[in-house]
Amino acid sequence: MNSREQDDQRKGALKQQLVNTLDYEQLMNCMRCGFCQPACPTFHQTGLEAASPRGRIALMKAVADGLMEPDEAFKQQMDLCLGCRACEPVCPSDVKYGQLLEQTKDALFEHAEPAGAIPLRGLHKFAKPIFKRHRRLRLMSTILHAYQRSGLQRLANKGNLLRWLPAHMQTMERIMPHADSRGVVKRVGGHRFEAKGERIGTVGLFRGCIMDVLFTETNVNTVRLLTESGYDVVIPKEQSCCGALFSHSGDRDTAREFAKQNVKVFGDAKVDYIASNAGGCGAMLVEYDHLLADEAEWVGPAREFAVQVKDISELLLRSQRWNQLPEAAVQSKTAAQPETTRDDTVTVTYQDSCHLRNVMRAGEGPRQLLRLIPDTNFVELEGGEVCCGSAGIYNLVQPQMANDIVDSRMEAVRDTKASIILTSNPGCLLQMKVGVEREKANDRIQVMHVVDYFAEKILK
Ligand code: SF4
Ligand code: SF4
Question: What is the pLDDT of residues 401-458, one digit of tens each?
Fold first, then answer.
């Protein structure tokens, strides 16, 4: 078979998979009202119908109806979608856009053009064992740690040795947090911790992969906040990555493998809740029942697992200790000067994690807590619910659109006059740091995870 025939065969198989797997009922549920358009960042940036949720659904339906080929233009619009799912909560027909996108991405991954498929599959093959076994991830972070701390990074930046990298990769390299190969377990010195004061329940900490080596301090603070709030905390040893990075690029088999491992180890740990401090991971975890829906033996345990998953803000809000904070704040305010003249009041704003808001539907939790924190002037970010452009590895594969989006987020940040931008997801945190760097505002604006901010303000 010559290469042209092979290509025709691949395109035919792609089309057939889309026809077979796209959920036609969901496609029909879209009544083309357009209520989702204003919520969509790619529509907002381009003004193109094809780059909107309604437009993408129409493209999927045209392929499913055999009216259109899943050609390069089709693929481009699917790739441009952030998967932020801001189109779901605003849809009056409850169209499950995220599921339609997954079905499309699965097919595109399965039948990718050889030029794109070989590097993508190679990358997945390389990354899978690293993300599956935490030890290996720690080894990688040791290498990064050595690069960052040995003076090599300083040398590389000073000598402009990384100029061969694309501009967005150079920015990413500069804003990357310091790696800590010890991870949370070594940092806190164990796998099990007792609640302080009255006990509310037992929480299993989902420590994440990137989270545990680049944001170790946030994981440490999560354990501290949970125990201080009345939870026993367990950190199951054999947990793996949530699988989101694989699932979002179409490799659902690897994501399923990771999901089964997590369902098993957290089930064995016999916890009441599973705490997530990363919106992207949490959203993946709460949909494990959907991911494993076709596996009779796993769907029940996956459902139990999914209902136990909570964002840390939801767990903290259940604690009596946080309900007592307003009293503490009032006492501290009346004991000092009026708020406007107090030097220790800091103005903060909050950039949503799309997946925390649109999938876990827990976007209000961090805001509620921020309103309780003493010495904090919390100013809402206009359009804070709009994706920042991070979206997993979107900012690496679609840098132009990601930059356009984060620049528009920074315009809104400017209006708040905040000196700290808070987020609930490591990817959003890095992307907002990119925004601050592009704005040349490093000396004025800090970006923090909400957990670290809470810990700084509450755990003296
Ligand atoms: S809001 Fe829902 S029903 Fe309306 S166009 Fe968007 S996806 Fe379709
Ligand atoms: S997931 Fe986000 S980017 Fe994609 S269509 Fe929905 S709102 Fe637009």
Answer: 999 999 999 999 999 999 999 999 999 999 999 999 999 999 999 999 999 999 999 8
Whether 71 contacts 108, CB under 8 Å: no
For residue 25, give the CATH number of its domain.
Answer: 1.10.1060.10
In the block, which residue shows the tokens 């209902």? 307
Give the model confidence (pLDDT) of 126-171 as tens digits.
677 777 677 777 777 788 888 888 888 888 877 777 788 888 888 8
Last residue of a domain, one of 111, 145, 164: 111
Domain count, the chain: 2
In which domain, by residue range, is 104 found?
3-111
List pLDDT tens digits, range 88-104: 999 999 999 999 999 99
The residue among 111, 136, 159 that closes a domain is: 111
Q: What is the mean pLDDT of the chain?
A: 89
State in Å: Cα 79 to ligand 1 middle.
20
List Cα–Cα distances, 299 to 264, 295, 304, in angstroms: 12, 6, 9
Instruction: Identify the CA nearest to 85 among candidates 256, 229, 341, 287.
Output: 287
Pocket test for ligand 1, best of 26, 59, 95 (most atoms within 8 A of CB): 95
- pLDDT for position 406: 94
The helix, strand and coil proportions of the chain, stated in percent and rounded to the nearest 5, come to 60, 5, 35
Contacts of residue 455, defined as CB under 8 A and 6 or more positions apart, other chains included, come to 221, 224, 225
Pairing status of strand 231-234 against strand 192-193: antiparallel
Pocket of ligand 1 (CB under 6 A): 30-36, 53-54, 57, 87, 91, 93, 95
